[in-house]
Write a structure and sequence with these properties.
heterodimer; A: alpha+beta; DNA polymerase, domain 1; 4-stranded antiparallel sheet; 15 helices; B: DNA Polymerase III, Chain A, domain 2; DNA Polymerase III, Chain A, domain 2; 3 domains; 9-stranded antiparallel sheet
């Protein structure tokens, strides 16, 4: 049976979320990543900003030089996470065969859904419409018989596009495209291929697998398959995560204890909320510290009982942080926390009223955050972060 | 000091008191064993300041005296001697040991520096049959907490009430309560908290005892004293308030399943193999008898991405169908100390405590909190 696979990609995701929330940003060059006088890179740029040559990954200061009138914003990860969750929820309505990729992309296997939603093309239109109605965002969708072609198709039709490659026409569709469109081909591989006289995917497809293997090793074989539109990877829900982590790079290196602790608390609350939403408990807490000189350390601690409580994760992480800082007093550039050795199921307790009170507190905060957003409520420990 | 005794007796005595020798300590002398003549016997004592054990063994005493000797060194030396007569003699602080063609000299520390072992003359005083005490300890001691975050939970709540002795232990996730009879009643009601570690050691000492054990609790309740034949043990007590556990024992149930202990235990152990990766979760599904099928209980576990198992056993069920998940360890622990052929598992909801009782006796109850899982 011919597979029908959709690749759905939200356009300029971070910026579009910002524009959806603040109408005065619409139609303007907007850059998410931070203020241009601070260090950092562009996380996302609106299509208006892209006209000036700004793209994700370039330093903010260069973006400013390219387009001084652009609006630079810090960005709010919690908002993007929320938008992403709603995006995935919408698509989950259409097929159980859903594979999220990052926050703003997903593959959906529509094989066999014709009876319910009609042709894949109509399904894609329905998805686009719901995303536009409910999230005020635009998506570009590629439809093809395999993942790699669907992905290329969605890339080609951005923004707000829809591109379907008819069954059996995949190779014809790919042939004229430059090799750089193929996932897995970076600057170096592209350069190497150019030296071999190969610039289009069609030319690449004609090369023998043996010679590609000779030039590029095992990945050469994959290039050969992709260039010939051979890709039997299934659309699969992501494997169970082995760990969950969050980290943040400070705009300025710091050793301010109350600020570091507040940030740590914020990260731990985020991890706790994520654990609880997945119904998991973590047994190991790992702290990651990067100092101003880029020396990076990580320290881990095993909990006596697996936990999903903010307070327990924070206490462990704080212990690790205090120990690390008492050992080495250096300005900190990045702070991160990871929870791992995740397990499902929670041992209920019979006596510990304090534990139970903290559980109730976490649950109450979770409910408020689900309804009004992560930043709608904060604990006293994170107060030094207000307005940052 | 000058005496001789038999190697077997000395080795046995050292192994008895060795349980009380301090391992990590800031007071080095507590790593020694006190050797003293006591009338015409040899007395050995050791203490880690939480508990002390003293035992007496037969010896031919020629000259009285006392010394403390590093316990480990002495024990290893005595254990390596052949079974024969051992002569001990003390010259200043050096103990000389001779047995046949072997001899050794070990330097000790003055006996006067050894921490005094409390003597308890008056207080609550009673006696109990050895096997009753052993069974009581074995049925509760594993349920005590091992971490020190709530010290009272590392102890066994011991209540004397007339001729009743009630032992209880709880670690926050489970509760074990055992009732037994005293041979001589105490006046009134009184309760103490004895460290679980002490009772574990006491239970070991009881293994080759036959005569009733005398228990004395010093007032105000700071120490408990156990007298066995030729052995005495003193334990510090844990101060604090033990949780009022009687209110934690559910008074009713929605489902009661009576199962064979051996079958249940086997099925849980089997599932525990698969539950190892998943925080020990085993799932019990209880299905009452239908017209043609007898009542049954299934015990299952799954390891993410690895595999799963399920076992089924017969069950006599009173009440409705039910399911509940427990930590496998908590089930195997309690099933391992029940000697009756059948147990009853009583449950109310998947997130309220489960109760396990041996069928046919009413002196033991075990409460286990379930695990919250997505079914």
């Amino acid at each position: 049976m011919n597979r029908r696979i959709l690749h759905i990609d939200l356009d300029a995701f971070f910026v579009s979320v910002e524009q959806a929330l603040a109408s005065n940003l619409k139609g303007k060059p907007v850059v998410v990543g931070g203020r241009p006088d601070r260090r950092g890179v562009v996380a996302s740029a609106s299509y208006e900003a892209r006209n000036f040559g700004i793209k994700a990954g370039i330093p903010l200061i260069r973006a400013y030089r390219l387009c001084p009138q652009a609006i630079f914003i810090q960005g709010n990860f919690a908002q993007y996470q929320e938008a992403s969750n709603r995006f995935m929820e919408i698509m989950a309505n259409f097929s159980p065969h859903l594979e999220p990729v990052g926050l703003d992309e997903a593959y959906l296997d529509a094989t066999g859904t014709e009876g319910i939603f009609g042709h894949a093309h109509e399904l894609a239109l329905k998805i686009k419409e719901r995303i536009k109605d409910e999230l005020k965002l635009t998506a570009s969708i590629g439809i093809a018989g395999c993942k790699v072609v669907a992905k290329i198709a969605s890339d080609l039709c951005k923004p707000d596009g829809l591109c379907e490659v008819a069954p059996g026409e995949e190779r014809l569709f790919l042939a004229p495209l430059p090799v750089s469109q193929l996932p897995g081909i970076g600057k170096k591989t592209e350069q190497r291929l150019r030296e071999l006289g190969i610039t289009t995917i069609g030319q690449l497809a004609k090369m023998s697998p043996d010679s590609l293997k000779k030039y590029f090793g095992a990945s050469g074989l994959i290039l050969h398959r992709y260039a010939n539109a051979i890709d039997d990877r299934k659309v699969e829900p992501p494997a169970e995560a082995k760990s969950i982590s969050r980290e943040t790079t400070f705009t300025e290196d710091t050793l301010d204890q109350s600020f570091l602790q507040a940030t740590l608390r914020y990260l731990c609350e985020w991890l706790g909320a994520e654990l609880r939403s997945q119904g998991k408990q973590a047994k190991v807490v790992t702290l990651k510290l990067r100092y101003a000189d880029f020396e990076t350390i990580s320290r881990r601690l095993t909990l006596t009982e697996a936990s999903d409580r903010d307070e327990v994760i924070f206490t462990a992480a704080l212990q690790l942080l205090s120990r690390a800082l008492s050992w080495k007093q250096k300005l900190v550039r990045l702070l991160g926390v990871e929870v791992s050795n995740l397990m499902k199921g929670k041992q209920l307790s019979m006596l510990d009223s304090e534990t139970q009170r903290l559980e109730h507190l976490d649950r109450a905060i979770d409910r408020i955050r689900r309804k009004y957003g992560f930043t709608s409520i904060q604990t006293g420990r994170t107060l030094p972060l207000k307005g940052v | 000091m000058k005496l001789f005794c038999l190697q077997e007796n000395l080795a046995k005595g050292l192994s008895i008191v060795g349980r009380a020798v301090a391992t990590r300590t800031t007071l080095p002398i507590t790593q020694n064993v006190l050797i003293a003549t006591d009338e015409s016997r040899l007395k050995l004592s050791a203490t880690n300041l939480e508990m002390a054990i003293t035992c007496w063994l037969g010896a031919k005493v020629e000259k009285d005296g006392a010394i403390t000797i590093p316990a480990r060194l002495l024990t290893e030396f005595i254990n390596s001697l052949p079974p024969d007569r051992v002569d001990l003699s003390l010259t200043q602080r050096t103990l000389e040991l001779k047995s046949g063609r072997f001899e050794a000299r070990i330097n000790g520390i003055d006996a006067l520096d050894f921490p005094p072992i409390p003597q308890i003359a008056n207080g609550i005083n009673t006696t109990i049959e050895v096997n009753a005490l052993r069974e009581g300890i074995s049925q509760v001691v594993f349920a005590a907490a091992t971490e020190e975050s709530r010290p009272v939970l590392t102890g066994i709540h011991t209540e004397f009430d007339g001729d009743r002795l009630t032992l209880a232990a709880a670690d926050g996730f489970r509760l074990a309560v055992h009732k037994t009879n005293l041979l001589s009643p105490v006046s009134g009601k009184s309760a103490i908290i004895i460290p679980a570690r002490t009772l574990t050691e006491l239970s070991r000492l009881l293994a080759d005892q036959e005569e009733p054990v005398t228990i004395t609790v010093k007032q105000p309740k700071s120490q408990a004293f156990f007298r066995l034949k030729n052995i005495e043990m003193v334990s510090q007590l844990i101060q604090g308030t033990f949780p009022n556990y009687s209110q934690l024992i559910p008074q009713s149930y929605a489902t009661r399943a009576v199962v064979d202990v051996a079958q249940f235990s086997r099925a849980v152990k089997m599932s525990a193999i698969f539950a190892r990766d998943g925080s020990g979760i085993v799932r019990l599904v209880i299905t009452p008898r239908a017209e043609l099928t007898p009542g049954k209980m299934t015990i299952s576990a799954r390891a993410e991405e690895i595999g799963d198992n399920i076992g089924e056993i017969d069950a006599l069920i009173d009440g409705e169908a039910a399911k509940i998940a427990f930590n496998a360890k908590y089930l195997t622990d309690v099933l391992g100390v029940i000697h009756q052929p059948q147990v009853a598992l009583e449950i109310t909801t998947p997130s309220s405590p489960g109760v396990i009782r041996p069928v046919g006796v009413d002196n033991y109850v075990h409460v286990v909190m379930p695990m919250f899982v997505q079914w």
